[in-house]
């Protein structure tokens, strides 16, 4: 039976800085299936290494019999492809075992390369059809964080797209610069030809 998985994304701390210039513009996204569409938070502009969203995301297709993991990504918004900052896989049996099927926890994050860096605070609640969500616990536990190989492969694919996008943008900029230089050189050559022709005409006029 399909339930609703409510994920409140509170904040993230000690994130890796992936921006070459400026600060991270991070957002979080969650899913219970890597092949499904992720549900995203808002973007926090210029947040840097610390970000607060305090936003609840609803995953409507959650089935406790089929989905045993929550996949959490944090990405930096870019003009082209967004760059992954961190990720974590959370076992959902810990939520089902919590009082009222609601768990507020602090979960360790992993970089693209698999290094543990940073933390994210989430409240995860399982809501059955016809039921209302239980009250959020005020206490915070240390949640279980997993480094899942399939999830990491997903993150690395996002990184490759972002890197390829950066390379393509750089190639376009270089091409534009070379094109502008070629036009400039052609214009200089044309001006020189015209100047030489004018000087030649003046010299010929002086001879008469």
TrEMBL record:
Residues 1-105 form the C2 domain. It comes from the Eukaryota. Residues 185-208 are annotated as: Disordered. Pfam families: C2. InterPro entries: C2_dom (IPR000008), C2_domain_sf (IPR035892), Ingression_C2_domain (IPR052981). PANTHER family: CONSERVED SERINE PROLINE-RICH PROTEIN (AFU_ORTHOLOGUE AFUA_2G01790) (PTHR47052), INGRESSION PROTEIN 1 (PTHR47052:SF3). This is C2 domain-containing protein. It comes from Linnemannia gamsii.
């Amino acid at each position: 039976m399909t339930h609703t998985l409510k994920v409140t994304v509170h904040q993230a701390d000690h994130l890796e800085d992936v921006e070459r210039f400026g600060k991270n513009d991070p957002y979080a996204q969650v899913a219970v299936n890597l092949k499904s569409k992720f549900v995203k938070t808002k973007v926090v502009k210029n947040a840097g290494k610390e970000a607060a969203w305090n936003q609840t995301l609803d995953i409507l297709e959650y089935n406790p019999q089929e989905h045993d993991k929550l996949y959490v990504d944090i990405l930096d918004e870019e003009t082209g492809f967004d760059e992954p900052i961190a990720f974590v896989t959370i076992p959902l049996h810990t939520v089902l075992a919590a009082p009222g099927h609601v768990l507020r926890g602090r979960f360790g994050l992993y970089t693209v390369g698999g290094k543990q860096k940073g933390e994210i605070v989430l409240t995860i609640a399982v809501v059955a059809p016809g039921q209302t969500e239980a009250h959020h616990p005020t206490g915070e536990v240390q949640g279980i964080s997993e480094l899942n190989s399939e999830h990491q492969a997903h993150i690395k694919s996002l990184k490759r797209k972002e890197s390829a996008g950066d390379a393509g943008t750089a190639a376009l900029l270089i091409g534009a610069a070379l094109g502008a230089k070629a036009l400039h050189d052609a214009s200089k050559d044309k001006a020189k030809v015209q100047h030489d022709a004018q000087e030649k005409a003046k010299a010929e006029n002086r001879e008469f």
